Structures are given as structure tokens and as C-alpha cells.
Amino acid sequence: MHQTAPPSTATTTSISAHRPHRLGLRIVATVLLCTLLFAVVVSSIQIYNAYQNALDETRLRAQDIERNYLPLLAAAMWSVDEPRITALVKGIAELPDVGEVLLEDDVGNRWAKRHSDFDTPLETLRLAISYEDNGETFLLGQLQVSLMNNRIISELRRTAQSIAITTLSSLLLSALFVLFIIHLWVSRHLEKMAAYAQQLDLNNLEAPLKLTRVAPHQPDELETLVEAINQMRLRIRDDLENRNRLMAELQLHRNKLEELVAERTQALEEKTIALEDKTKVLEQQSAELLEQNYELDAYAHTVAHDLKQPLTNMAASAAMLSAVSIGINLSDEKKRQLLLGLQRSAQKMQSIIDALLLLASLRKTDQINLQPLDIQAIAIEACNRLEPLIEKNRGQISIAHDWPKALGQAQWVEEIWVNYLSNALKYGGTAPQVQLGATRLNNGMVKCWVKDFGPGLSDLEQQQLFDLFVQFEHKSADGHGLGLSIVKRIARALNGDVGYEKTGDGGSLFWFSLQGVE
């Protein structure tokens, strides 16, 4: 028998705080619940079978009544023997499991008998009463018998109570015995192992764990666990010795490593800063390159589509005029129309080329010299440039009186006014009414605007309004999609912005902003 010194007082108090034996209780409770479940299932099956057998016996009452009482009732009713009929009805009612008896003859007379405990019928029997005389059958009435299950339920309750008491008593005694065995063979040794583990100290790893019990002939699970704990103790002791040795060696290299890390970190930070600067430059160049590629694609789109139509018209007009030299006669009016067509096509091409050149010059300009501008005078000059378009569309332009000063480039700002005004005259409705003005904002910017009373733009059109080469399907299609994109680039180059608003009176307001002059 192995013996060890008892644990310290503090350890004993800590272990006893975990009582009662929770592991044993859980095992016993689990076994008890499983056994109880099985017992309930088996008992339920037994009670159910007993109930079915009792039901079968109850239903045999119908056969007894039909075989023994029905002929007697038929004879009594044929002879109109009321005392005998009453006695037979009472006899049927006193049979076991009969709750109610109702007899009714063919002339409406009724005999009824009801059990005092009858409530809900288990089954109702309806039997016709007939009498045979001289080979002829006479229907005398009908017997109705209601069966009840009061006796069956009462007996089943007594049986269930008996089974429950016996089962629970057996399970309780078994649980107590199992709990005692678990405590004797397992729990007390586990408590000792826990006490040993609690008092185990990294500075005291020499005392092994031993259990106070008779050693088994063959090592069991507890012996295996004790051996594992002792081996772990030895490994921890050896690991601590190795760790102390390694910590001493590590301390020797720590200072040198910190110096090396500091040097490498400083060098890495310098390289990182340089790399971030290069990355920012590359990202900016990449963004500029993407924008330039997009604009180059847009230029190709314009040359391929917008210049194609005026060139085709010019070629067709030239071919028609050249046909005169080979003998085809054209009227003077036709020749004049062809020449006018050549002139319009040339002007169209010139307008597209000027817009492309202005857009390219904006992209190449890095430093812009902003000057104070009289934006009202520039707006008036833009109106003068568009005088033919104003007359063609019968437009009316009204200009506000008070105009604040702003910074910018006169030529570029005039292009913005021309673009906004031409759009308002084209899409502002029949005989368009156009208003021009400028307002100083609270942030110091000057908001210049062109208002018309046309149908306005949809949400999708507003999102694409200032993109390159975007045209909307309105009544006029003589544009080339560069105007508002140029307006946006000019405003951004002048440190301003552009936008569109729907007014409360149903019109449209196009605006651009410039830096104000104090």
C-alpha cells in the first residue's frame, strides 16, 4: 500500500469546496435518467397493452348483450311485458362497463337507465330488436347501449402507481449504491490528484504523486493517469532547466540584436519613405496616363464619327458640282444649295476642330495666370457671338444688373458662356427665354448661371451631363458632345466647378463657379 503525506490545510480547504462529488453525481444522474427513460418506455408499453386488452374485454359486452339479452327483450316486447322489459334494461345497465341503456319500441315508448359515473361514451351500440312469428319477422324497436371506460382507467391508474413506486425505489437505491462505488473507487483519488496539482510548484518538482489504495494486479486508468502526471512533472523540471539555460544565452544576444534591429529599422523606414514617394508619383502618372488614353480614344471617336458626316456631305456636294463639267445641268438654286452645304460642313468641321484644340490646350496647361474679370461684359460678348443662333430660334435673353468680380481667363470663360447659351437656345423650348446672372457665395466663390425654361434633364442624363462626347436625344442633334466636357475642364482649371439644377418653376439652371475678387 502506497502512502503519502496529507496535503496542506490551504489545499484541503480548496478541494473540499468542490464537494459534493459533482462528477459522480453527474454520472449517477445520467445513468438514472437513462434507466428511468427506459423504464417509462417499457411501463408505457405494458400499460398500453393492458388498456387495449381491457378495451377488447369491454367490447365483448356487446356480444353478450346481443346473444343473451336481445332475444329476451324481443320476447318481452312481443308480449308487452313491461315489468320484464324494465328488469332486462336494468340488468343490462348493471353489467360492467355499461354507462347508459336506452330502449325505444315501435310506438315511441322509452326505457332508460344511466350509470351514476357515466360521462363520455367509449363506444355506442345500436341494436335492432325483432321478433319472428310463423316465419314472419317483426321490428319491435331499437336498443342503444353506451359503454364507458371508467373502470379501465381506474385500474390502469392503480397499476401505473404501483409500477412507478417500484421503479423509482429501485432506481434510487441503485443510484445511491453507484454513487458510493464511484466515490470509493474514483472520486476520492481524483480529489487527491487535484490537491497534488494545486500544491505543485515550479520550485518544488521532486515529490512524486502516489495514491492511497491497494495496488491493482493490472494497471487501471487511475494508475495510468498517475504515471502520466509524474512523467509530466519530470518533463516540466527538465524543461525549466533548459529554459533557464537558454534564457541566459538569449540575454547575451539580446542587446546586440536590439542594436541590429534599430539599424535595420531606420534603414527600412528610409527606404519605405522613398518607396512611398515613388509610389505616389507612379500612381499620379498612371492616373494621368489613363486620362490621356481616354481622351485619345475620345479624339479618335470624334474624328471617326463627328468629322465623317461633314466630310461625306462635302464630298457629295463636290461630286454634284463636278458633274456640271461632264454635261449634267444643275439649276442655279441647286448650285447655291450645294455651296451653302459645303460652307455649313466646313463650319461644322471648324467648330469640332476648335473644340478639340481648346480641350488639348487645357490638358497641356500647367500654370494658369488668373486675372480679375468683368464676367458681365464677357457674357454680353458671348451673346453677340451667338446672335445668328438667337435670331434663328427667336430667343430672348435677359441679363442681370449686379455682377460680382471674379478671377479667371477671359477667353476660357467666354467659351463657357457660349456653350451654356447655345445649349439653352437649342433645348430651351420654342422661342426660348434665357436668363444670365452671377451670385457671390458665402465661401467666396462666384456662381455664374444660365437659366432656361425647357423640359429639363432626367436623372440619368444629369449623371452623364459633363462627360466627354455625350449627346442626348433632343430636338437638335447638330452638336458633337464636346461642349460641356470642355466647360467642366475649363472650370476645374480655373479652380472652380460646374453643375446642373432643376428650378422650382420647371426650368433648368446650368452654373459654373470662379474664385471671387475681394
TrEMBL record:
Transmembrane segments annotated in the record for this chain: 27-51, 163-186
Annotated coiled-coil segments of the chain: 240-270
Enzyme Commission number(s): 2.7.13.3
InterPro entries: BphY/WalK/GraS-like, HAMP_dom, HATPase_C_sf, HATPase_dom, His_kinase_dom, HisK_dim/P_dom, HisK_dim/P_sf, Sensor_dom
Enzyme class: transferase
UniProt signal peptide: none
Keyword line: ATP-binding, Coiled coil, Kinase, Membrane, Nucleotide-binding, Phosphoprotein, Transferase, Transmembrane, Transmembrane helix
Cell location: Membrane
Protein name per UniProt: histidine kinase
UniProt organism field: Cellvibrio fontiphilus
Lineage: Bacteria, Pseudomonadati, Pseudomonadota, Gammaproteobacteria, Cellvibrionales
